[in-house]
Amino acid sequence: MTRLDKSDVLSGLFASWDAIDGVVDALPDAEWNRSTSLPGWTVHDVVAHVIGTESMLQGAGTPEADIDVSTLKHVRNDIGVLNERWVRKLRDVSHAGLRERFRTTTARRREALTAMGEDQWHELTATPAGPDSYGRFMRVRTFDCFMHEHDVRDAVGDADGDFTRADARLALDEMAASMGFVVGKLGGAPTGSRVRLELTGPLSRTINVAVDERAKVVDEFDEEPTATIALDGLLFTRLAGGRTSVDHDAISYGGDEAVGRRIVEHLNYVI
């Protein structure tokens, strides 16, 4: 299991909630109704989704929907069904009321998570990444909330994100952990490949993936990489989350360019 420092992960998760609150705090009503890069969802809906997920983690039951949400084009799986039910339930709440509900819900979660013992934090549980520790689950939550902060920022034209916070680092940690799957399984990099992703800009990082019997993230290669992919770190997160389409002109390739391009074209791994 993945063992993560509780105080570190919670500092990132709480910072992400604070960032979402800060972005929407003074938004006029018209801005709440702006469409986001998530099909079918407005800014209001994104905030409602975060509220719904944290409410479920507090033990709240999933609300019934007024329609069969599984028939909606943008709902692709069972998790999407749960998410959509919360979004539709909270769609008629005023924007101001939703903001207050977000604050109340996250405040309760802060209290519960802060009070959680170390044994429970490291306990095996179901997570969106498969069975792992509760701490890993909360790192996934940090990644999710970081992504939703930038869904909102993109929608309202606010580019003032702070990439020095713990949530940005933890979001990249979570994404890096999935790059073996992306490179080897989705991208089909052949055995013997050494793929280096160079993330540039404020979210800079180097992610090395070696493909042997299975693809895995490694600290360093013994030889030069067989393929390199260089792109802005925030663009990397948006591509991996399916928030934007691939523009190869915004990405630099080295070595086996065909493998690099195929990996980028299959970078969207988020459910």
Secondary structure blueprint with pairings:
Layout: H1 6-24, H2 29-32, H3 43-57, H4 78-89, H5 95-115, H6 118-121, E1 124-125, E2 132-133, H7 134-156, H8 166-176, H9 179-186, E3 194-200, E4 205-211, E5 215-218, E6 227-232, H10 233-240, E7 252-255, H11 257-265
Parallel strand pairs: 3-6
Antiparallel strand pairs: 1-2, 3-4, 4-5, 6-7
Helix pairs in contact: 1-5, 1-7, 1-8, 3-4, 3-5, 3-7, 7-8
How would you characterize this protein structure?
- The protein has 271 residues and is of the alpha+beta class.
- It has eleven helices and seven strands.
- The chain has helices at 6-24, 29-32, 43-57, 78-89, 95-115, 118-121, 134-156, 166-176, 179-186, 233-240, 257-265; strands at 124-125, 132-133, 194-200, 205-211, 215-218, 227-232, 252-255.
- It has a five-stranded mixed beta sheet. It has a two-stranded antiparallel ribbon with strand order 1-2.
- Strand 1 (124-125) and strand 2 form a beta hairpin.
- It starts with 5 loop residues before the first helix and ends in a 6-residue tail after the last helix.
- The mean pLDDT is 96.
